[in-house]
Amino acid sequence: MPADSAIPSFTGDASPYGGGDPYADYRTADFPFTRYTDLAARQLGAGVIAANDEFFAQRENLLVPERAEFDPEHFGHKGKIMDGWETRRRRGAGADHPWPTAEDHDWALVRLGAPGVIRGIVVDTAHFRGNYPQAVSVEAASVPGAPTPGELLSDDVKWTTLVPRTAVGGHAANGFAVDTEQRFTHLRLNQHPDGGIARLRVYGEVVPDPQWLATLGTFDVVALENGGSAEDASNLFYSPASNTIQPGRSRKMDDGWETRRRRDTGNDWIRYRLAAQAQIRALEIDTAYLKGNSAGWAAVSVRDGEDGEWTEVLPRTRLQPDTNHRFVLDAPAVGTHARIDIYPDGGISRLRLFGSLTEQGASQLVARNAELGA
């Protein structure tokens, strides 16, 4: 991370919890990279596959999607139960030197839900006020398939440092910008020498495997897991637009995209970037769990290139609440971007655009992977 980075940094203890809202004195900031996809999201398939120690709190808590909770009365047989990953206190070699060495540290291995280029990382120490690590570091590797923890820790794997050993603060969102142009599949989160971390977020751009997509043939060309992204939206009052291209069907109302109520004659919209130039042949608009607040009508348009003209592929069509709507296009639509307009407001839970990459799109994706060392 550049020394002149404008990313705020937090160090030192937070005050002991004194009652009331535990987040009242939480230290955080608006990190510019959080507009990207969380590559470590459980919904994408990420997991914490190993840790050297999780004596007080389990490693899997690192990827829980909700913010960490704190119950001051929650204790177990091993001590205070925290909503995060917490290791025991390290000790030195003996009474003459009871302190851990400078090299002592704990680690956790994280499999990203989708491979990609990492733009920023948040190591969140919420509620770890005096028991957070003194410093953290993060390394990344690109390993195909589904390697075991032992294989990841072998000498054959090359690890690239994304965040050098850096002091962090307790009860704070510690953010780090990353500028390494490589495609990664796994992370190693290190805490020096020990302590607790509540959550880990890894923001970046999905870079899919071109061979896998070519083998699939027809797939969802706007899905996050396949390299699509939500670039912009008219309104994000209740939920992020990226929810609409998450894997699987929505499971509750806030798992989709919902806008505030309009009091004018405008309409709301989301603009997407596809995995690469693609030929779209069918689409789905799902309003699952949006019953009294689903969009009334929707239209879908496609654009080829940054400066291309928008072409409507689905005219304004009535939507039903809590329903998955399927449409087969009369003719395939070629494009690199898509846009859904909803009328007048409300929300949808998912948008699926089914098709395949064009020859140009497939070639560009292969070239992109080669540039990133994949």
Gyration radius, in Å: 23 Å
How many separate helices?
3
- The poorly predicted ranges are none
Structural class: mainly beta
Largest β sheet strand count, sense and barrel closure: 8 strands, antiparallel
Strand content: 35-45%
What distance lies between the first and last C-alpha atoms, to the nearest angstrom? 23 Å
Mean pLDDT: 95
Annotation, overall tally of beta strands: 21
Helix content range of the residues, please? under 10%
Shape: globular
H/E order of the elements? EEEEEEEHEEEEEHEEEEEEEEEH
What does this structure look like?
The chain has 374 residues and is mostly beta strands. Helices cover 6% and strands 39% of the residues. The protein has three helices and 21 strands. The protein has helices at 149-152, 210-216, 359-371; strands spanning 37-38, 47-51, 75-76, 79-80, 85-86, 106-124, 135-141, 160-167, 173-177, 184-192, 196-197, 199-206, 219-220, 229-233, 257-258, 268-286, 297-303, 311-318, 324-343, 347-348, 350-357. Strands 1, 2, 6, 7, 8, 9, 10 and 12 form an eight-stranded antiparallel sheet that branches. A hairpin with a 2-residue loop joins strand 3 (75-76) and strand 4. The longest helix has 13 residues, at 359-371. The chain is globular, with a radius of gyration of 23 Å. The protein starts with 36 loop residues before the first strand and ends with a helix. The mean pLDDT is 95.
